[in-house]
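Appendix B. Chain record.
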Amino acid sequence: MTERLADISARIEGLRDLGAVVNAMKGMAAARAHMARTQLGAVDSYAATIARAMALILPKDPARFARNGPSDRSNHKPGLLVFCAEQGFAGAFSERMLDSFDSLDTEPDPARLFLIGTRGLSIATARGLSPQWSAPMPSHTHGLPKLADQITHAIYAAVAAGHIDALDVLYTGWHTGHASVVRHRLFPLDLGDRPAGAMDRPLTQLADDTLIAALGQDYLNAQVCKAALHAFAAENEARMQAMSAAGSQIAQELETFQATLRRVRQEAITAEIIELGTGTQAGAGSGQR
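Structure tokens predicted for this chain:
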């Protein structure tokens, strides 16, 4: 009985320690998700500023800058940038993202796949999918601009090498407690629908094509950074949700073990009382004889 009490007590102590770890992970995930959400506004403002700059210098007929796509669809080489989870304990975050490939128009070519996230890369490799380029997701948001630079350089290197001529991005958006896969075009930039600048055209020393190309690269970088922030926030939101579920399960198990401990203690006390009572009766009978 004593050994059983010790085992149950040790189990309860272990559950309490595990609950403390889960709560700490939940708190860190909440702080990181909040930080990413607050920084999205700054990235949106930066991208909007670049868009306005491009609108100011676009010619009256901006069609020559519009995205027309390759004329020969048989030679079309679309790439795909995918943001998965960097760490575990985020539920089926990466699996959900990789499963979304089934809904794409065409099966993604691994030679044109850019994948972010160490955990996602491990799962993709286990599925027999080896991306052409991959990188880890930073553990803090201040590392995301550097990641966006790396992704942008990798994209332009692939375009220059003739590996891709277009690129879509897939990342997880998180709204009202629910995750959804978001997909949109990153490259080429579609400037044909940009509004005409309301202000007078500024004086420039660069040719329109050169200036648009330079601004376009900055705009692409901002869009990549925005997708990375959304993915970063969503991964931590998913981790918060997973840790909340784990915390509830731990609380239920803890309650069960505490009830078991109370019952076993009561049984031990009852057995001890019976033993004492039996011993007293035996002693009294012996004295009478």
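Further analysis of this model is presented in Appendix C.
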